[in-house]
Every structure is written in structure tokens, then in C-alpha cells.
Design brief:
Helix content is 0%, strand content 50%. A hairpin with a 6-residue loop joins strand 4 and strand 5. The strands form 2 sheets. Strands 2, 4, 5, 6, 9, 10 and 11 form a 7-stranded mixed β-sheet that branches. Strands 1-3-8-7 form a 4-stranded antiparallel β-sheet, with no helix packed on it.
Length: 127
């Protein structure tokens, strides 16, 4: 069992930056691929970014490419989402997700591919 806790959300003006963190506990973090998803009111959960357990592979949703960066620090059991050039449409609850994965390269863009989820952190971008 893996527990995930997100932090770093808040209110920011359009064009600003935020860095989200997701700390994992309960099992070794090393073999877990990680993902970030977001959900705005009245909308479906949307893929934001993913990183393989080794860190060699990353993937991004089209709406955030070039603005967001996912990274991980295995020693700290933490995955990060650096968000730059924020837009009003980035406003959502951001969720961290984990999946135990043997492949060094696997990254997933579907919520159904992940087994563990955090409670989410709210990001609000004022226009």
C-alpha cells in the first residue's frame, strides 16, 4: 500500500509559477511510476504529466507541454510538478497517482492505469 500526499497548491496570478510536491509513504517508492492529473469543476479528470520509476521517461498532456515539468527525487520519496506560465484554464484540483511498474520506461496517461491516488491540492489561477 502506498500513501500519497500532495502539497504546494494555492492562488497565483496568470503568468505565474507554482511547484507541486507529492510525498509517498508506506512502500518503497523506487519501483513506482508516477503521474499528475487534474480535475476542474464539471470536467473529467485530465492527464497532466507522468514519469517512469527510473526517471528516464516523461510524458505530458498537450495543454501543458512546454510549461510544466515533472521530476522525482527517489531519495526523498517525492515527485514534483513545476508549473510555469500558468493560465486561468489551469485552475483545477491536482492529483498525484502511483503505479507499481517493473519497466524502467513505462509512463501512463490514463487514470485507470494507476492504483494509488492522493487527496489532491487546489490550484487557482486568477486571470
Amino acid at each position: 500500500q502506498v500513501q500519497l500526499v500532495e502539497s504546494g497548491g494555492g492562488l497565483v496570478q496568470a503568468g505565474g509559477s507554482l511547484r507541486l510536491s507529492c510525498v509517498a509513504s508506506g512502500r518503497t517508492f523506487r519501483r513506482y511510476a508516477m503521474g499528475w492529473f487534474r480535475q476542474a469543476p464539471g470536467k473529467e479528470r485530465e492527464f497532466v504529466a507522468a514519469i517512469s520509476w527510473s526517471g528516464v521517461s516523461t510524458d505530458y498532456g498537450d495543454s501543458v507541454k512546454g510549461r510544466f515539468t515533472i521530476s522525482r527525487d527517489i531519495a526523498k520519496d517525492t515527485v514534483y510538478l513545476q508549473m510555469n506560465s500558468l493560465k486561468h484554464e489551469d485552475t483545477a484540483v491536482y492529483f498525484c497517482a502511483a503505479r507499481r511498474e517493473a519497466s524502467d520506461y513505462w509512463v501512463g496517461g490514463l487514470a485507470s492505469e494507476y492504483s494509488y491516488w492522493g487527496q489532491g491540492t487546489q490550484v487557482t489561477v486568477s486571470s
